[in-house]
Amino acid sequence: MRGINLRRKKPNQESPTPDWRAVIIYGLAVLSVAFFLVTRFFPLDPEGIKILRLAAKEMEAAVNIIRTCRQTKGLPFDLQADPNQTGLIGLRRSILTTTLGQLEAKRTITNPDLAALVVYLLCQAGVQQGDAIAVGASSSFPGLIIASLAAAKAIKITPLYIVSLGASQWGANDPRFTWLEIQDCLEQAGWLPWEPVAVSLGGTQDLGLGMEPEGKELLLERVKAKGLRLISESDLEKNVALRLSFYETAAKGKRLAAFINIGGGWANMGENEEVLHLPPGLNIIDRSITTAKGVVWEMARRQIPVVHLLYIKGLAEKFGLSWDPQPLPRVGQSEFYLEARRSSGHFQLLASVYLLVAFVLIILYRFS
């Protein structure tokens, strides 16, 4: 006997209809996860990120040169003050010390990612290959001077820098290893192709007030021996005018695209309390300011963007830099790299596509 099929067929039985709303929700979830992974782990602007890393690598190379140079000179490292043996940390007190300084801040700026951050800020300011930038620097922050020079090498721009040689605590205030010795180390290794436009003693009125008399004499002798131009003008307005003329002459017709202020130099900052309110990083200052004197304010009047590097704790917090790192972090670990990716044209295009597709999916969900 043949088996009897007891299952009854339903007339006009159809396959189940897919729940399109669920499909859309899952599709939107997959799209969001994919967008997150791409933006988080893949460089969306390879050339831009490459330049940031190149600057950091340049600074890393400079620190290695300085470390070796210091060892060659037979100068031991104070492992309590400079555990990373960078050679960029000075003394608590010396005949060259002008003011107080924070050791943790001085160690923070030896991080090679500082050079990448300077590139990031200069690019935000619109600096392009072939431009010139002016740098007003205090030897209180040798790590930031190195970072700015490394950034200039990476972007292929010309840094016109003026350095004050007196330094606060833990800066380049070691009489055996001043900024001039650090500069010599980099020049002899072929890392530094530029000499400063000029130098000054720094301190109050740019005359080295605050440091010991023998410290001033030592610096003056070394400046004379190297044949460097010395600024020794105690009138603020004349001092600023002199610096601006040096920058303009040294630019040789190139566009002066930005000014980097490193530290709290009297001539650069001026005497107006308003300068204390400048946030760390890039500043587009209101050009209508008419009373304040100082290189920072004169640059503002000329509509030149100012990169302000002084409040190191605020700088570290704002851009995700490691505070007082021991050991120094690997290149590319700072949070601003992610922000650099987000500000790239590739990211903005990808974000636009994501938002458009998400919008279409939401519309389909609404009317399905």
Q: Strand count, sense and closure of the main sheet?
A: 7 strands, mixed
Number of individual domains: 2
Helicity range:
40-55%
Task: Tell me the overall shape.
Answer: globular
pLDDT under 50 segments (min length 5)?
Answer: none
Mean of the pLDDT scores?
89
Strand content: 5-15%
What is Rg? 28 Å
N-to-C SSE string, H for helix and E for strand = HHHHEHEHEHEHEHEHEHHH
List the SSEs and their pairings.
Elements: H1 20-41, H2 46-72, H3 103-108, H4 113-124, E1 132-138, H5 142-155, E2 158-164, H6 179-188, E3 198-200, H7 213-226, E4 230-231, H8 236-251, E5 256-262, H9 266-269, E6 281-283, H10 295-301, E7 306-309, H11 312-319, H12 336-342, H13 345-367
Parallel strand pairs: 1-2, 1-5, 2-3, 3-4, 5-7
Antiparallel strand pairs: 6-7
Task: Outline the structure in words.
This protein is α/β, with parallel strands linked by helices and 368 residues long. It has 2 domains: 20-42 and 345-367; 46-334, no CATH class. Helix content is 46%, strand content 9%. The protein contains 13 helices and 7 strands. The protein has helices spanning 20-41, 46-72, 103-108, 113-124, 142-155, 179-188, 213-226, 236-251, 266-269, 295-301, 312-319, 336-342, 345-367; strands at residues 132-138, 158-164, 198-200, 230-231, 256-262, 281-283, 306-309. Strands 4-3-2-1-5-7-6 form a 7-stranded mixed β-sheet, sandwiched between helices. Strand 3, helix 7 (213-226) and strand 4 (230-231) form a beta-alpha-beta unit.
